[in-house]
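re the bet — no i am not wrong, look at it urself. input seq straight from the record:
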Amino acid sequence: MEGPLLKLENLGVRYASVSALEGLDLEVHSGELVSLLGSNGAGKSTTLRAISRLVGATSGRILWRGANLDHTPAHRTLRLGIGHCPEGRRLLGRQTVARNLELGAYLRRDQEGIRQDLERCYQLFPRLAERRQQLAGALSGGEQQMLAIARSLMGRPTLLMLDEPSLGLAPRLVAEVMAVLADLHQQGQTILLVEQNAQAALEIADRGYVLEAGRRTLEGRASELLGNPALRAAYLGTA
């Protein structure tokens, strides 16, 4: 079996005297959709930020295609194929939808490929096509989240990492976003999905990990985790 695309070995991250992650082991294989679950403060966002090299690891290793990312600067991770769609969207509100998408491809020089990917994003998110000349700041919350995901796709990431894409969205919009992620997964996109909405995340995932206070407490196939009584009681509201 081919080795994992991404592998975390005994990863630890500290903020001053506070431990945010401790001894985290995690793998993502090519073509997988892996969900990283947990409550606020569990260390989910820190995990993504460590992979993107936005925060430094205090222990352990981050391996990308078998190579250690320890000395890789943050601006190099996208060139390596690691895309990060952060919590909070971070769009350019005074720029149009089209301009935000174009900026997602700022490292690329293949103009025809960029044009094709723009059309692909508009097909995935028809509402963005309708609003391509509208300012990003004037979009609804759901539309802004769609734009943030589409902008990340414009970099053609090998691994797309998403941080709480359903946060603050109405249930109908959550379903729309998750349907798009499921579609991307079916097309072969490798995804690491951070989510508090465990039900929605596990319904589209292959596997999942659960973090509590910076430590991994559960892992397994998504179908197994959905049936796990401890997880259901803690995150799904049922026993």
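see?? The chain has two domains: 6-81+157-236, 90-143. told u. also The chain has a mean pLDDT of 92. so pay up
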